[in-house]
């Protein structure tokens, strides 16, 4: 079983219901909707199609709504792309009229006030560089310093501007409302600066957050966020290493080191971490990745990322299914050499009162000692499964939950597979569900050993029990299953 999860960005190449089903059956664990593109009607259609595909396939797949955030972007262009030649003039202006290779609209009303003659401007991931040569009351004239291809809605980066826009603009608030109405699992927050930005999004989500079930993923794209990473990790469910814009903010030669540091710190805090941007960029037009891309993906797996994310490769590429297949193959091959020795992050002393973490550590140690095929944990919120996953056990983690939102959110957590169970399981019911799930989900054979955690003896108590099961040669008799339902109920986090 692959432990590293795959998150794909949807777009024109992948937003049909048939293609969504193909992606799920190919092993995709989550879908990202980029709200910088498409219309409200298109987003609603895709979200509803994802829910239908979930029911059809019986797979738990997470949905991530990626809000545009305070990013300055180009507006619409007449043609899909234009190539700007070095030395050419390109006029930028706040406007809604489609642009071309002579002028372009910018979605930022304060563009003129934010720039000065001589300022550099970077388009997209910085491949195209402009310099401001003149300003008027309504436009900015630039000279192309380094030419290249530009397209509609690309980001426009102003390194010298002093901008402090709100973390959520009017469009973001509308998009957030739509996403919550249609049922999503995570909000990805663009251009996070500090923990306060994350708290603001939580406040905006407010009572519609389904008892805290919608998580916030902070996209790390600014150098400012690196300085405040501890506060961001404290406030969020996870982070995304968004290497496009981050590669502009930090020296390119240090980007790999920054990525490794972010993964390590997220692992240590038990937070979800996603590595994104240009993982298999060549596969936009090629059925195979480059050797450098395969190595990049493998290194992210070795570093301990929870999930790998495709962007252009799956949104507009010619080979989205092949890209998923390659991520799957590279991750499996890398994990096969990694798992025998484990990848557990540094684990300090257990603090008094942290019973759940102590039990999780015990479960991981026991599983390794006896060669268990899985660690099975009942969970209401998903916290127990996340705590076990943080310790990177050498066997799969099976989270049993009656909560659909919990099962979906765990789809992006390293090493966790989810199973559906009725609420208020007794200890006997838990054992039977663990055995049935191990057989059905993992194909475990009779005699295989499972490590099961639980909260005992009363419902609502935190996880405090580790139990070892051996799969019997056949399912328990029906009479025993009926008697088990009257046992004491289990609690779990």
Domain module tally:
3
- Level of helix content? 25-40%
Number of helices: 17
Strands, count: 22
- The spatial strand order of the largest sheet comes to 1-2-3-13-14-15-16-17
What gap, in angstroms, lies between the N and C termini? 25 Å
DSSP strand (E) fraction?
Answer: 15-25%
Q: Predict the CATH topology of the largest domain.
A: TIM Barrel
- Name of the top-level CATH class of the largest domain: Alpha Beta
CATH architecture name of the largest domain:
Alpha-Beta Barrel
Secondary structure layout plus pairing:
Blueprint: E1 5-9, H1 17-25, E2 30-34, H2 40-57, E3 62-66, E4 73-74, E5 81-84, E6 89-94, E7 103-107, H3 111-114, E8 120-123, E9 128-135, E10 140-146, E11 148-151, E12 156-157, H4 170-182, E13 186-189, H5 195-205, E14 215-220, H6 223-227, H7 229-235, E15 238-242, H8 243-249, H9 255-269, E16 272-276, H10 291-303, E17 307-310, H11 312-315, H12 320-338, H13 355-370, E18 374-378, H14 383-390, E19 397-401, H15 404-409, E20 416-420, H16 427-442, E21 449-454, E22 465-470, H17 478-484
Parallel strand pairs: 1-2, 1-17, 2-3, 3-13, 6-7, 13-14, 14-15, 15-16, 16-17, 18-19, 18-21, 19-20
Antiparallel strand pairs: 4-7, 5-11, 6-10, 8-9, 8-12, 9-10, 21-22
